[in-house]
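ping. complex inputs:
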Amino acid sequence: MTKVEINPRITAYPMPVVIVGATVDGKPNFMAVAWFTKVNSNPPMMLIAVGKKQYTGEGIKANKTFSINLPGKNLVVETDYVGIVSGRKEDKSRIFDVFYGDGTTPMIKECPLNYELKLVDTVEVPGSNLFIGEIINAYVDQEKIQGHQPDLLAIEPFMLVETPANHYYPLGSQLADAFKVGKALSTEK
Amino acid sequence: MTKVEINPRITAYPMPVVIVGATVDGKPNFMAVAWFTKVNSNPPMMLIAVGKKQYTGEGIKANKTFSINLPGKNLVVETDYVGIVSGRKEDKSRIFDVFYGDGTTPMIKECPLNYELKLVDTVEVPGSNLFIGEIINAYVDQEKIQGHQPDLLAIEPFMLVETPANHYYPLGSQLADAFKVGKALSTEK
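pong. complex structure:
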């Protein structure tokens, strides 16, 4: 196998897509985010990377709260829209039914899974603010629950793939059992 | 749609899986990581969340360098193995061909895409160290390149889905064009 050096700026992994909600200038605003990850189990924390010029970031800094909403593939057009248009220019909340749970953070009713987070830390890198939030509430559509857990297969999330071209992809067919198939390679029997 | 509150500790999004490499105690070590994200474009930076007790974290702290290797679905057993067994107990480097590129960071030849990173910041959350690295080199298998970019579809990455059960999934069939389909919803014509 010959390895070839490529431009390290190319992002080449499948990125799950969520919609981040925040109150900005007194109004609910939403933006698509593909740069995020869980970072802590207990208490549960997630991190999102938001460009320093993004309108949503202003609301997160001001209110110290944000939401993470997981869209199903039926919302791919809406999700793409809130990723390409700034809340500075258009009122993006008009395309969703907004709800607030127990708190003051705008969430999206049409998204089957909603996390409400309080900001616990902000880390700066050159172009982004990394907002670390603790999940204080989680909501799921009743019909997308299986045994007290959200059924991710029923939610039908999708991923952003940037190479070879910018497209969204859903999950395919089950490949293997996690935390199990690898036991075969252990030297401990 | 009725929203139901669930335990906020449940992680419910599809998590792409990579294998992180580091030199620990003078030997190459690898671990599967599903908590990571890109965080900056220029210079390109990625963040990985590693449990504080993980063996790999010791090597990253000591050497201030790590690699991120993207496995294809043909490596699902190997990837699962390096996620469930600690390098403290078993020599996990024995199952891969290790290469070093221009630097001193162990990378996995069988993974079609390899990033070499230098540690630029470490952020602590209660249970994890968040290692932020700048990508200093990127390598791709020659036959997985299309127009100077890694062809992610040819690489065949996979995602960890934890709910309703722990399974790995590849990508499905193309859903929509990114940064394009959402334009239909813009109020600016």
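Chain B has a mean pLDDT of 96.
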